[in-house]
Amino acid sequence: MEPCPTLVHRYSPKVPFSQIFRTGVSLHSHTMYSREYLGRLPGYIAKFPIGSYVLEREIGRLHLYEGRSFNFNKYF
Fold first, then answer.
1. Residue 1 clears pLDDT 70, i.e. is over it
2. pLDDT tens-digit readout, 30-50
3. Which residues fall within 8 angstroms of residue 59, CB to CB, at 6 or more apart?
């Protein structure tokens, strides 16, 4: 495989990127100031049988033994 040059282009609504390029990559990062809440996490975990089982078991134990409910929207 021959190496090819890598170019990084910043998005601009004035440039018709969809006509020029076939693919793109979104560079996404987090800092200590980022806040992505975990409210969507149970939906993702539910797609995996083992993950869903473990999550439900642990949340059930928290509720049964300590009387608390876990609010995913509270944590990030």
1. no
2. 777 777 888 888 888 888 888
3. 69, 70
- Tell me whether residue 53 is in a domain: yes
d(CA 21, CA 46): 36
Residues in Cβ contact with 63 at an 8 Å cutoff, skipping those fewer than 6 apart: 69, 70
> Are 42 and 75 contacting, i.e. CB atoms less than 8 angstroms apart?
no
Note whether residue 64 is domain-resident: yes
Total domains, the chain? 1
Three-state SS across 9-68? CCCCCCCCHHHHCCCCCCCCCCCCCCCCCHHHHHHHHCCCHHHHHHHHHHHHHHHHHHCC
pTM assigned to the model: 0.50
